[in-house]
Design brief:
The complex is a heterodimer of chains A (346) and B (589).
Chain A lengths: L2 H32 L6 H16 L6 H19 L6 H25 L6 H24 L7 H23 L13 E4 L2 E4 H23 L1 H11 L1 H6 L4 H23 L9 H15 L5 H21 L4 H7 L1 H11 L9
Antiparallel strand pairs in A: 1-2
Helix pairs in contact in A: 1-7, 1-8, 1-10, 1-11, 1-12, 2-5, 2-6, 2-10, 2-11, 3-4, 3-5, 4-5, 5-10, 7-8, 7-10, 11-12, 12-13
Chain B lengths: L1 H15 L8 H26 L7 H18 L4 H23 L6 H19 L9 E2 L5 E2 L2 E2 L3 H23 L2 H9 L3 H6 L4 H27 L1 E2 L6 H14 L4 H25 L6 H16 L5 H7 L27 E12 L2 E12 L3 E5 L6 H8 L7 E6 L2 E2 L5 H6 L2 E3 L12 H7 L9 H5 L4 H17 L15 H13 L5 E5 L7 H16 L3 E5 L3 H7 L2 E6 L2 E6 L1 H6 L1 H8 L4
Parallel strand pairs in B: 7-12, 7-13, 10-11, 11-12
Antiparallel strand pairs in B: 1-4, 2-3, 5-6, 5-8, 8-9, 13-14
Classes of the chains: A mainly alpha (346), B alpha/beta (589).
Chain lengths: 346, 589
């Protein structure tokens, strides 16, 4: 093997691995807090990427309308669920969060679109647009069945994935999009060329990993989020607002998904259904990490990225086959390692 | 018999439909598709709804069936009828390989595993030269008998629906059998089933293969119906759709699969034809509606639509109790009264640094009731789990009838005639009391899955159910025999567990807190039942907190505290033992 090819493949693998790491982290985060296996994580990537790409062309992305629509539904859910205990404070809070917020974002996006915005403005605006979708998604799809078994939540996730993917098609069309790089600088080390984009990917990934690790390991709030996952009732008894925890987890997942999407859309063309496959690879990493360990997930994501890079070089037809089959031995090891418990579910 | 009649009426209705004058041919195509989907969903009902193993990958098995016949008929010119068994075998073999990997997975790893190989196989189908890559294979010959060719949807309709009805019949037969009860017990965890000799890993693999073979059959039919195959209908999305069908219909019900397939296929058709009109041609909005409906359904009716419909129509699935059944042969009880049945020597169990059971020794002799007592956390239930093989011991020896059973699996212990009940009741709530109790007789029947599907097990089955009924009558629950176990009070459920244990025809009965949750009268009845059993030569080891109950019936009492035996003797001796008093009441200092 040529050492230059080896280095290229490694670099390529690490770059995609870093993205998978971000997604894997989001999946671990959501699972740790809500026990939801977030199959639609990939849709956040798509939404983020395409929102950013559409903003770069100076138009208002359809996701603003999606957020608005989901906000209305979430508001309706709040009203119906709380119809017997409604008070003005609750009403105003729900109204502000579910109706006023997406309206304001829509207004902001319409106002800013069409100007020659800097990359930073579009980056932030994309996050602001997509993040509430995560929030409403939890309210609408998962909060009513928050107590259900992991399996029911998983099936619901699959339904959400289908719905969001279809909405992605409706709002962005079947055409793929690309966007300008977030950093154009580049430098060369030996045979390798490092683009500003790849450096940005590494930097943001590391930043987020460290941030999450600190949040969950060392802050009271992070620990409260984790407590929710272990025992919802117990967490409520000690005063943790479990619903809020779930919303925060989904908000973070949406933000991370959006960032991943923005990072990846300058490198590869993103279609309405691309995110799913990217998300699933993050999944492979998250599962290798047992859906609990952040460092292990990040490492596994790099392995997935590198395996993918090498298999696309040597057996490009069977790239996906190899990556997803990689999961099976891991799952078996995981199953054997976890102590045999009677998984009785009521 | 109501079920049989329902089946016949359904078959007749389906047979008449194509002959209705003016029946649009398009409706027949829809019905064909419903039948194909129902076959796969039926497998999922067994796998997911009944067995508790969620699979997103069933579509891949359709692929195995479809591609097998496609390759063999187009490239090798085999007759479609010849490829039918081959298609089923290929799906089955694929299921053995994937199943051996998958059913080992626990909890949510299992569905994730099916997603993983579901995607892998889809890409494999779309990249392999042998199966025509993304283009697939076309020009598949139609099914034919003599000169009659099943080319149009109206003809293959009969083949599809005969297959559906036959498979429904076989599946229902399987569920109402010894093997079926073992499968139905899987969803409630493996501990209870294994305690009565069910090989849970084998049972899981069995349903996995069964579901795959049904999917393979659907794939074979699909290939000869469409006369062409490509990878798309065998991808993950199709797998999700099949699961959706099973959930919509009611994942635990065979007819739910047919109903679900009907609802979903028709709904999809309506969405595909009307949504573009309403939304001005926005394509693929049906997936949005689909996804939303799936989530809404999980929120509103997690049990699916079939059980609701069945309740509305007052369909009951009550099993008639067969009359005049042969009695099961009793176990040979060549045990002299002085024989030691169970001998525990220095049994030890450590969980990390915690010593839950610390070198405990005691024995149970034939015809004796021994009680194991001690404060909470004394290690009583752990000792039970060591004896019954649920936990592996860290040291010491345990022997039953002089045979060393250290770390033997629970099934082996059950075969030796040691039956148990559980501290936390482990019955299958959606099975009747009779069916639950019959699980206890699992090891005393011998009919396998295929015999049950073909109803060759009737004699065996009748004997098992008669035995179960006898045991239920004996514990005084005859009037509740046909109720669902989940509808009984906790005290009654405990008694059902005892009946189930008695069905093993045990020499030693292990009862974990049998009197907890029982009313005074029930306790008295239980005590007299235990005395009666003892008089017949049965030995009993029980864990119990109700001291009155224990002192009343036990011949000997073993007292544990913090995993260590602190006293042993007759009730009178234990009652006055200072260490025991200290353990229970503390010391006055």
């Amino acid at each position: 093997m040529d050492s230059t090819i080896l280095l290229f493949l490694l670099q390529d693998g690490i770059t995609s691995g870093a993205i998978y790491a971000l997604l894997g982290l989001a999946l671990v985060l959501v699972f740790a807090v809500t026990r939801v296996i977030l199959i639609p994580q990939g849709e956040f990537v798509t939404f983020g990427a395409l929102t950013y790409a559409v903003l770069a062309t100076g138009k208002v992305p359809g996701t603003t309308l999606l957020a608005l629509g989901m906000g209305v539904v979430a508001f309706a859910f709040d009203m119906i669920a709380g119809r017997n205990t409604m008070n003005p404070r609750k009403f105003i809070r729900s109204l502000a969060l579910n109706i006023v917020l997406p309206l304001a974002i829509w207004g902001l996006a319409t106002m800013l679109a069409g100007r020659q915005n800097s990359v930073a403005v579009n980056f932030l605006l994309s996050i602001i647009i997509v993040a509430p979708i995560g929030l409403y998604l939890y309210r609408i799809a998962y909060q009513p069945i928050a107590h259900a078994s992991v399996l029911v939540l998983l099936i619901a996730s699959v339904g959400v994935h289908l719905a969001l993917q279809g909405l992605g098609l409706a709002f962005f069309g079947a055409e793929g999009l690309r966007a300008p790089a977030i950093a154009t600088a580049a430098f060369t080390v030996g045979p390798l060329r490092f683009t500003g984009q790849s450096i940005a990917i590494y930097a943001i990934t590391i930043l987020l990993i460290v941030g999450l690790w600190l949040l969950f390991g060392y802050t009271l709030y992070g620990k409260a989020l984790r407590a929710t996952a272990v025992n919802r009732l117990g967490a409520r008894i000690v005063g943790i607002r479990t619903t809020l925890s779930g919303q925060v987890a989904f908000l973070l997942a949406a933000v991370i998904g959006t960032i991943s999407g923005i990072l990846i859309v300058p490198i590869t063309t993103i279609y309405y259904d691309t995110g799913f496959l990217i998300g699933l690879k993050g999944f492979v990493a998250a599962i290798i990490g047992g859906l609990v360990s952040y460092p292990l997930t990040a490492t596994a994501a790099l392995v997935v990225g590198i395996v993918e890079a090498f298999s696309s070089f040597y057996a490009s037809n069977f790239k996906e086959v190899i990556v997803f089959t990689l999961l099976l031995p891991v799952l078996i090891l995981r199953s054997l390692a976890t102590p045999e418990v009677d998984e009785e579910e009521d | 018999m109501a079920q049989r009649w329902g089946m016949i009426i359904f078959a007749l209705v389906m047979a008449v439909i194509p002959f209705i004058p003016g029946m649009p041919p398009f409706w027949i195509v829809l019905l064909d598709n419903i039948g194909l989907a129902a076959l796969v969903a039926m497998g999922l009902v067994l796998l997911t709804g009944v067995g508790g193993l969620t699979s997103f990958g069933q579509a891949a098995f359709c692929g195995f069936g479809a591609y097998t016949t496609a390759v063999l008929t187009t490239s090798y010119g085999l007759s479609p009828w010849l490829t039918l068994p081959l298609s089923l075998i290929v799906s089955g073999v694929a299921a053995v390989i994937l199943g051996l990997i998958t059913v080992r997975l626990s909890g949510h790893y299992l569905p994730l595993g099916t997603i993983a190989w579901g995607i892998s196989l889809f890409y494999l189908f779309s990249k392999l030269e042998l199966v025509g890559r993304n283009d697939g294979i076309s020009g598949i010959p139609p099914l034919a008998i003599g000169t009659l060719q099943f080319t149009d949807p109206g003809k293959i309709y009969f083949v599809i629906w005969i297959a559906v009805i036959l498979c429904a019949l076989l599946t229902l037969n399987l569920l109402n059998s010894r093997t079926g009860r073992a499968i139905r017990a899987l969803r409630r965890g493996h501990v209870a089933a294994e305690a009565f000799g069910v090989e849970t890993a084998r049972a899981k693999l069995l349903v996995f293969i069964y579901a795959a073979v049904l999917a393979g059959l659907s794939g074979w039919l699909y290939a000869h119906f469409q006369r062409a195959v490509n990878p798309t209908p065998f991808g993950l999305n199709a797998g999700i759709e099949y699961l959706f069908i099973a959930v919509v219909g009611g994942a635990g019900y065979v007819w739910g699969a047919v109903l679900g397939a009907g609802i979903v296929v028709v709904l999809k058709e309506i969405l595909q034809s009307y949504l573009p009109v309403v939304f001005h041609g926005s394509a693929q909005l049906e997936t949005v509606i689909f996804g939303i409906l799936l989530v809404a359904l999980l929120q509103a009716a997690p049990g699916g639509i079939w059980p609701r419909l069945a309740a509305l129509l007052r369909l009951s699935s009550r099993l008639p109790l067969p009359q005049g059944a042969d009695a099961l042969p009793p176990r040979e009880k060549a045990v002299a009264t002085s024989n030691t049945l169970l001998d525990v020597q220095a049994a030890r169990k450590q969980f990390g640094g915690v010593i839950a059971v610390n070198d405990v020794s005691f024995n149970v002799k034939a015809g004796e009731i021994v009680a194991l007592i001690g404060p909470n956390g004394a290690g009583k239930s752990t000792t039970f789990n060591l004896i019954t093989g649920v936990l592996r011991s860290s040291g010491g020896t345990i022997s039953v009838l002089g045979r060393n059973v250290d770390n033997a699996p629970p099934q082996e212990i059950a075969k030796l005639g040691v039956a148990r009940t559980f501290q936390h009741v482990k019955l299958v709530p959606d099975m009747t009391v009779l069916e639950n109790v019959a699980i206890g007789a699992h090891l005393r029947g011998k009919s396998g899955a295929i015999a049950s599907m073909l109803r060759l097990d009737r004699k065996d089955e009748a004997a098992l159910l008669a035995e179960a009924a006898r045991r239920i009558e004996r514990v005084g629950l005859a009037s509740q025999m046909h109720q669902l176990a989940g509808s009984l009070s906790l005290g009654q459920q405990r008694i059902v567990e005892i009946a189930r244990a008695l069905c093993v025809d045990p020499i030693l009965l292990l009862l974990d807190e049998p009197a907890a949750g029982l009313r005074h009268m029930e306790k008295q009845k239980l005590a007299s039942l235990l005395r009666q059993l003892r008089a017949e030569g049965m030995s009993v080891l029980l864990v119990e907190h109700d001291m009155g109950f224990v002192m009343d019936i036990a011949d000997r009492i073993v007292v544990l505290e913090f995993g260590t035996k602190i006293a042993e003797g007759t009730p009178a001796a234990v009652r006055t033992n200072p260490d025991v008093i200290k353990a229970y009441l503390g010391t006055a200092s």
